[in-house]
Design brief:
154 residues, mainly alpha, 3 helices, rod-shaped
Length: 154
């Protein structure tokens, strides 16, 4: 098998490169000239200025995004607060309706209809209405009818 020569180095040993000679006078002068020319270019080239219009537009954009974000967060907090407040008020309304219904039922149950009938007929001299004095109507509010006692057969 023929041996190949490649520019690659295998293993952990790197090849030794001979240093370039820097004592060459012409090379030193060329480098000094390059440094001088580079420094001159640096001095003569104006430094890049900050574009004031772009900076102003960037600042305005940033400020408007911040203001819109703050307004959005404020509206979100306000919406959350209002929805919680609505739920609280609705639960208060439900509680009040329950209390009112219970109070109305207690009031209706506390009335003694027999005592009222006796007082009206005996003490005040009222008479029971005849059939031609009774008018019936249909209630549009509720379809429920409560019966407190048995209907007399008479």
């Amino acid at each position: 098998m023929a041996r190949q020569t490649t520019p690659y180095v295998y293993g952990s040993a790197a090849r030794q490169v001979a240093p370039r000679p820097y004592n060459n006078e012409e090379e030193i002068r060329r480098r000094q000239r390059e440094r001088r020319d580079y420094r001159k270019r640096q001095r003569t080239q104006p430094k890049p200025k900050l574009d004031k219009v772009a900076l102003l537009l960037t600042f305005i954009t940033f400020a408007s995004v911040m203001v819109v974000g703050i307004i959005y967060l404020h509206l979100q907090f306000q919406s959350t607060y209002l929805s919680k407040n609505v739920v609280r008020l609705q639960s208060e309304v439900v509680d009040m309706e329950k209390e009112n219904t219970a109070a109305a039922m207690e009031l209706e149950n506390s009335v003694d209809l027999d005592a009222i009938y006796k007082k009206a007929t005996k003490e005040l001299g009222m008479k029971e209405a005849t059939s031609d004095q009774v008018y019936t109507y249909e209630s549009k509010k509720s379809t429920q009818v409560r019966q407190h006692s048995d209907i007399p057969t008479e």
